[in-house]
Amino acid sequence: MKNEETTKILADAVRALSDFSSETMVYAPKHGRSMPSIDALHEISENLRSIIFPGYFGKSRITAQNLPYYIGVNIDRTFHLLSEQIARGICFAQLESENANCELNEITAQKITAQFFKHLPTIRELLISDVKSTYNGDPAANSYGAIIYSYPGLKATTNYRIANALLRLNVPLIPRILTEMAHSETGIDINPGAEIGHSFTMDHGTGIVIGETCIIGNNVKLYQGVTLGAKSFPCDKNGNPIKGIPRHPIVENNVVIYAQATILGRITIGKNSVIGGNVWVTKNVAPDSKILQSAVRDMSFENGAGI
Amino acid sequence: MKNEETTKILADAVRALSDFSSETMVYAPKHGRSMPSIDALHEISENLRSIIFPGYFGKSRITAQNLPYYIGVNIDRTFHLLSEQIARGICFAQLESENANCELNEITAQKITAQFFKHLPTIRELLISDVKSTYNGDPAANSYGAIIYSYPGLKATTNYRIANALLRLNVPLIPRILTEMAHSETGIDINPGAEIGHSFTMDHGTGIVIGETCIIGNNVKLYQGVTLGAKSFPCDKNGNPIKGIPRHPIVENNVVIYAQATILGRITIGKNSVIGGNVWVTKNVAPDSKILQSAVRDMSFENGAGI
Amino acid sequence: MKNEETTKILADAVRALSDFSSETMVYAPKHGRSMPSIDALHEISENLRSIIFPGYFGKSRITAQNLPYYIGVNIDRTFHLLSEQIARGICFAQLESENANCELNEITAQKITAQFFKHLPTIRELLISDVKSTYNGDPAANSYGAIIYSYPGLKATTNYRIANALLRLNVPLIPRILTEMAHSETGIDINPGAEIGHSFTMDHGTGIVIGETCIIGNNVKLYQGVTLGAKSFPCDKNGNPIKGIPRHPIVENNVVIYAQATILGRITIGKNSVIGGNVWVTKNVAPDSKILQSAVRDMSFENGAGI
Amino acid sequence: MKNEETTKILADAVRALSDFSSETMVYAPKHGRSMPSIDALHEISENLRSIIFPGYFGKSRITAQNLPYYIGVNIDRTFHLLSEQIARGICFAQLESENANCELNEITAQKITAQFFKHLPTIRELLISDVKSTYNGDPAANSYGAIIYSYPGLKATTNYRIANALLRLNVPLIPRILTEMAHSETGIDINPGAEIGHSFTMDHGTGIVIGETCIIGNNVKLYQGVTLGAKSFPCDKNGNPIKGIPRHPIVENNVVIYAQATILGRITIGKNSVIGGNVWVTKNVAPDSKILQSAVRDMSFENGAGI
Amino acid sequence: MKNEETTKILADAVRALSDFSSETMVYAPKHGRSMPSIDALHEISENLRSIIFPGYFGKSRITAQNLPYYIGVNIDRTFHLLSEQIARGICFAQLESENANCELNEITAQKITAQFFKHLPTIRELLISDVKSTYNGDPAANSYGAIIYSYPGLKATTNYRIANALLRLNVPLIPRILTEMAHSETGIDINPGAEIGHSFTMDHGTGIVIGETCIIGNNVKLYQGVTLGAKSFPCDKNGNPIKGIPRHPIVENNVVIYAQATILGRITIGKNSVIGGNVWVTKNVAPDSKILQSAVRDMSFENGAGI
Amino acid sequence: MKNEETTKILADAVRALSDFSSETMVYAPKHGRSMPSIDALHEISENLRSIIFPGYFGKSRITAQNLPYYIGVNIDRTFHLLSEQIARGICFAQLESENANCELNEITAQKITAQFFKHLPTIRELLISDVKSTYNGDPAANSYGAIIYSYPGLKATTNYRIANALLRLNVPLIPRILTEMAHSETGIDINPGAEIGHSFTMDHGTGIVIGETCIIGNNVKLYQGVTLGAKSFPCDKNGNPIKGIPRHPIVENNVVIYAQATILGRITIGKNSVIGGNVWVTKNVAPDSKILQSAVRDMSFENGAGI
C-alpha cells in the first residue's frame, strides 16, 4: 500500500515521462507502427545458426533422412520472421516522413528475404572456411565441433556474415542490431559494413573492434582486444561527421595481429605482416613487416610494492 | 539408476556441502530472509529502459494517446518490484546484526523508491544528451533510434545513471548489481559511485573500466578498453584496504581517450586533452595535451614467421 | 503469402542446405545421437553455483534447517543432468568411429560425475579463498556477498574451477563449453586446462585471457585485459599445430599484473613481481621485478584536434 | 538411433500425411494465410476478464489511481490482438473463394473491434447482474469476490456475453471458439447465438447445454446438467440440415430448472415455472408450472447387492 | 495504426471502464493490497500432489535416499507460498473494513499453514484408502499407479481433502478456489465444507456435485452426474438466503449411487443402499434400499425417425 | 522467517512424509527409473493433432510446398517423444519385478511407435469421417474448420482413436492417460479399450462415458451425459473384480442416444434405434426401437415456490 505522497510522486512521474511535447521525446517513435523486435531478431539469429550448423543447436538429432524436414521448417519460419523484421526496419528508417506507406514494404521485404536465403549456402561455405582456419591455428581446438559449439570468434563472424549480406541488400538498422547481439555475447564488435575475406580467425576475441569501412583479406588472424578503428573524421559545415567516408584500415591477406593492438585510420597493413600486441599504429605497414612495442622499462629497484 | 557407491558419494557430498558449522559457510546468509533477486533486478532494469525510451523495447506500439497508459503501468509495477528489492538490499546490508528488523525497511524502501522516480525525468534528460553526443561523434550511426536499440555504450550508461541515482539515495548492494548486469551484457564496467557529466560517449565500449571515485566532466568520449583505475591504495593496520578514499582519475570536460589506454590513480586529465591508445598514464596531464605511446619497433628483418 | 518465385528460391535453399553430399557438411554430426545441449549446460552451471553459494541464487530462503533439502535436491538433479551431458560429450568425441557404442558411456559418465561431486567441497574451499582475496584487494567491495552476487571475476573462476575438475576426470568438450559460457557472460576467457592456485583475484576482468598450459601460483591478481597467451607453436609435418605442448606463461605466487598487459610464451613471471599495464612481455621476468611500459610521447604542440 | 525399417516407415508416413491430393486433405486450409490462433484467443479471453473484473486476475494491485493505466494498457493490447484474430476469422470464412483479399479485412476488423469495445461497459453491467443473482441464490457464496474468482457459471457467462456481442457484429468462427474455451474449462456449453437476459445464474454448471436459437429471459436459474436442446431438425433436399431455423426452447423470466433436466425443441417454458431434475420435456410448459419426474420404484426386496 | 474514430472509442472505453464512481465497480477490491493469486494456488496444488504422491508428477526419479530432499524442498517452498496466499485470503475477507491491518495476518497465516502440514500425513492416509477402494471397485483399473496418474475422481478428492483441512483451520476463500480448480479439470464439484469418510470412490466423475453441508460416510461410491444438492433454502427477512443451514443429503456407509441420480435436501440415504441412475430423490431412503427410475416407455411404433 | 515451533512442525512433516517404511508408501515407485511424464504426453497429444489436422494448431501457415517439412519435423520429434514414453510405460508396468530390465524396452518401444505411425493415415481417415458426420448432424456447424478448431466431441474422439491404436499395440498405461487428458478438457470419458466404428458423433459431449468393453457401430450419435456403463461385475474368490470381462453395451449402426441416458450392462441397442434422454436402460433394445422416459408429473397446483 502506497501512502498519499508516494501516490502523488508516481502520478507526477507518469505525467512528466509521457509528455509528448517534452524535448526529451524527440527520439520517440511517433508513427504508431510496429518497431523492430529484439526478441524476434534473437530468434532469427538462433534459427540461422541452426540452419548453417545443423545438429549443434536445438534438441533435434540430425540424420540424412530427417535433415531436409528440419531445414525446411526452419527456413519457412525464419523467412516469415525475417521478412517481417526487415519490413519494420524499412518502415523505421522512413519514419521521419509522415506519409511513409509502411504497408508497401512487406512485398519488398519478402523479395529481399528471398534473396538473402539464395545467398545463404555461400555464407555457410565462408563460415566453414573460418572453422577450418580456426582449427588449424589453435592448438587448443580438438575438433571442428568444439569450435562450432563454443568459440566466440565463430559466433561473431556468423552474425557478421549474415548482417553483411543483409546490408548489401540495403536492409537498414537490422544488420547493426544483429552484430550488436553478437557483440553483447562475445565482446567482439564487427560493423556489418566491413568487408572480410575467407578463412578469418579471431582467437579469444573479447574486445576486438572492426570498423565500418575496414577491408580485410583472406586468411587473416586477429587476437583479443585488437582495434581496427578510425583516427578522426571530417565534419560537414554544421559540424556533423560526414557518414560513409573510408576511414578504417585495409588489412591484406595472411596478416596476424596480436592482442590489444590499436590500428587506426585508412592505412594499409601489407600482406603477411605480423603486428605485435599493445601497439598503437596509425601509419601504413609494408608487406611482410613485423611490428613490436618499444622495449619495457624495468623499474624493479625503484620503489616497493604496488605501482 | 545410481549404483550403491554413487548413492553414497552423493549423500556424503550433500552432508559436506550443507554443513553449517563448516568454515566455508562463513559467507552464507543465515537470517532466513529473502535475498535480493537477480531475476527481479533484470526485470526492473528492462522496465526502466522501456520507460525511458518508450517504443523501443517490448511489443507495444506507442502513440501520444496510449503512452500514458504504458508509462503508468510500467511505473506502477516497477515501483513495487524495485521497492521490494531495495528493502531486501537494506536487510542484506544489516544481516550481521542478529536483531535486524528487516520488516521496518519496507516503508523506508518505498520512500526511497518514490524519490528515485521523482528523479527519473532528469535521468532521461541526461541520457538523451548521451544519445546526441554519440550520434554526433560516430559517422557509423544513422539515427538516434539505432543508438537506442543497439549501442552498448548507451546501455551501460543507462544502468550506470540509474544505479548512481540509487546510490545517492543510500541504497546498498542493488546499484552494484545493476551496473554489473550491464557489465555482463556490454563488457563496460562503471562503478555506480563514479560521477559522470552530460553528453557522455563510449564508442564500442568493450573493456572500459571506470572506478568508484572517478569524476568525469561533460562531453567526454572514451573508446573500448580504456581503464580509469586505481594505482594502489592505503591499507589500515590490519592490512585491509581503507574503503572510500579518492583513488581514481579526474577527467575534465571535452577529453577524448583512445582504445586500451590505462590511466591510473588520483590524477587529472586536463580539459580538451587527447590521450592516444594503449598508453599507460599514472601522472597528471595538463589541459589541451595530446599523449601518445612511444614509437613502435620494426623487427621485420629479424626472424621469420610468428613472434 | 509467398509468391511463386519466392517459393522456388526457398525450396532451392532447403535443398542446397540439406545436401549431405555437399562439402560444407563435413562438420555435421552424422551419428543421429543426441548432442551436448547448451541449455542443459546452462542449467548445470546455474545449479552448481547455487550449491556452492547457497542462498544467493534462486528463490529459496536458506536456513540451517532447510539447507540439506535444497542441497540434496540440487545435487540429485544436477547429477542426472551432468552425467547425461558427460555421456553425450564422450559420444561426441568418439563420433568419427562408426562403431562407437555410445550407450556404454552412460555408466562411465555416472562414475565420473560421482567423482566430480566428491571433489565439489574442495572446489568450494578454493572459491572461498578467491572471494576473500578479492575482498581484501578491492576497496570498492563492501561485503563477501556483493562479490558473490555480482563480481564477474568470481563467476569466471567458478566455471573455470568446475571445468578444470571435469577435465582432470578426462571429460571431453563439456569443460570448454562451460568456460566459454562464463567467457560470454564476463569477457574472461580461461582455458579449462590452465592450473590456478588458491586466492586468485581478477579485478573487472573483461578481456582477460588465460591459455591452456598456463600455471598460476597462489595469491595472484590480474586486471582487465591481461593476456597470458602463446607466442607461436610448432606444427607437425602436415602443417597442423601440435596439440598439448607447454606454450603459455608460468606466473608465480603473489604476482600482480595490471590492465591490458600482454604476456606471451612459456616464460616465467617470478614471484612477487608487478607488471604494469599495456606492456608486451615475451621474456622471463625475475622474481620481485617491476615492469612498466616505456614513457609516453607528449605531442601536445604538434597538431590540433583528433589524432 | 532409428534402425532402417523404422526410418522407412516414418518416411512413408510423412509422405502419406502430407499428400495434398489425398481425399483426407479436403479440410486443410489451402490459402497459406495465417489461421486464427487458439493461444491468442486464450490471451484475449484472459485480458477481457481482467478488464471487466479488475484486480482479480493478474499480479497488479488495483487502486483508484492506477486503474486507468491498467485498463488503458489492457484495452490497447487487446484491441490489437482481437482485431487481428477477427481479420483472420473473416479470412478463414472466405477461404473457399480463391480470390479472397484477406488484406482488406484488417480495416473492417479494426472497426468491428472498436464497436465491441464500445459495447464492453454494457457487458460489464450485465455480468454484474449475474454476479448479484448468483450471490443471492447460493447460500454457499460468501462474497461477490468468491464468485468472480472461482464460479464456473460466471466464467462461462462471461465468455458467452463476449462471444454473443462479437456474433452480433457478424464476426465468424471466433465467437464459437471463445465459448468452447469456456466449455472446456467449465463443462458449460452455451452457443454464442443464444439470447440470455440479465441476472442469469448457473449453479455448479457442469454439463449445461444451451443451444444456438435459445431465448432465455431475465432472472433465470439453471442447475448442472440442464439441456436446452433441439429435438430434430428439417433437412434440405440433399439431406443436409437447414441451418439457422429456431429449434431450441424459449425460457421465460424467473424460471428455475433443476439438475439434469432435458428440455428439447422450440417449446416455451412459461414464466415463474419450476422444472424438477432428471425430467425429459418436449412440450410447452405453462407459466407458473411445477414439473417433476414420475415416482421412483423401490426394488429393495427383489435382488441382493448391485443393480 | 488506428484511425481517429477508433482512438476516440478506445479512450472512451478506458474512461468508462476505470470509473471508480460507477455502480459496476461495487465489487472491485479497493484496498490496494495483493489479492489471492490463481497462479500461485495452481502451483501450491501441484506441489501438494507431488508431496502426497511422490514420483508421479514432476521430473524427479524417487529413491529411498533422495526422497527426503525432494519432500523437504517441496514442503519448504509450499509453506511459503501457501502461507502467503492464506494471508491474502484473510485480508480479502476483511476488506470491507477500512481499518483491516492485513500485515498482522502473516503470522496467523504461518501458524495455520504449519497446522495444515501437521495434518498432511493424515490426508495422505485417507487418499490412499480412496486409491484402494477405487482400484477394488473398477475392473478397468490395472494398478494403483494408473489411478494416481489419471483418475479424475482421485484428483478431485485430493483437492477436496486439502481444501477441507484448510477450511477447518478457518481459512476463507482459498479452500473454495482449490476445489473449483479441480472442478474445472475434472467436472467434479465438491464444496470444501462437505464431510467425506474414508475409502471414497467416484467413477468417471464428470458432473458430480456435492453440496456444502453433505455428510458422506465410509466406503461410498458415486458415479458420474450424481447430485447431492439442496432443494430449497430459507431466506432472511431481506430475502437473502440464510448461510450455513444444513440443506444437503446425509449418505451413510457403503452406499452406491449410479449415474445422473439427483438427490436433494437434508434427507438420509440409509447404509448399504443402492440408488439407480437418473432418479430424482427428495425423501429419506431407508437402509439397504434399492431405488430405480420408473419403467421407460417404448414408443417404437408411434412415429418415424427422430424424437 | 519461520519461528521455532513452525520449523519443528515442518521438519516432522518432512520426516513422516518421506518415511519409506510407512504403510502409505506402498504405492510409491521404488525403482528409481524415469516415470511417464504428463507434460511429455501433452506435447505428444498436441503434436499428433497438428499432424492429423495441419494448419489449425501452432503458428505455421501451411502450403502444399511447406507441408512435408512440417509433417516431417513433427513426426520425427513425436517419434522420439512417444517411443520414450512408451518405454517408460512398459517399465512402469513391470515395476513389481525387481529384475525388470527397463533398458531393453527402448528397442521394443521404437518398434511399437513405428507401427503406430504406419497406422496414423488410417486414424486420420476415420477422424475425417467423424468430422463429416458431425457437420451433417449439427445445424449450428458452419464449416468443417469450425469443428476441427473447437468441437470437444472431435477432440475426445481424436485422443480415443490414438489411444485405441496404442492399446492394440499392447502399450500399457499411456493410452489411458491420453484419454483422461481429453476427459479433463472435454468432460468426455472414453476408455481406450472400447471399439468405435466410423462416422461417430458426440454433440456437446460433456458427461459422456463409454466403458472399456463397449462395441459401437458406424454412424452412431451420442448427446451429452450419455453413459454406456457396467451394471455390476463378477469378483474372484478374494473379492477383487475380475478384469477384462465384457460388461458394457453393444450399440449397433445408426443409433441415436439423447442427453443423460444411462445404459448399463452387456446389452445390445439394436440398429437404427433412438433412445430418449434421461432414461435408465439395463435390458436389450430391439432394432428400430424408440425408448422414452415415462411421463412427467405436473405438480403445479401442490405447493408454492421451490421444490
Textual characterization of the structure:
The structure is a homohexamer of 307-residue chains. The first copy, chain A, is α/β, with parallel strands linked by helices and 307 residues long. Chain A folds into two domains: 32-186, serine acetyltransferase, domain 1 (Orthogonal Bundle); 207-295, Hexapeptide repeat proteins (UDP N-Acetylglucosamine Acyltransferase, domain 1), CATH 2.160.10.10. The first copy, chain A, is built from seven helices and 15 strands. In chain A, α2 runs antiparallel to α3, α2 packs across α7 (174-186) and α3 (67-93) packs across α4 (105-137). The longest helix of chain A is centred in the middle third of the chain and has 33 residues, at 105-137. Chain A is globular, with a radius of gyration of 24 Å. The model of chain A has no long low-confidence stretch (mean pLDDT 91). At the A-B interface, α1, α7, β13 and β14 of A face α3, α4, α5 and β15 of B. β14 of chain D pairs antiparallel with β15 (297-298) of chain F, so a sheet runs across the interface.
Give a short synopsis of this structure:
Six copies of one chain form a homohexamer. Chain A has seven helices and 15 strands.
List keywords for this structure.
7 helices, 307 residues, globular, homohexamer, serine acetyltransferase, domain 1
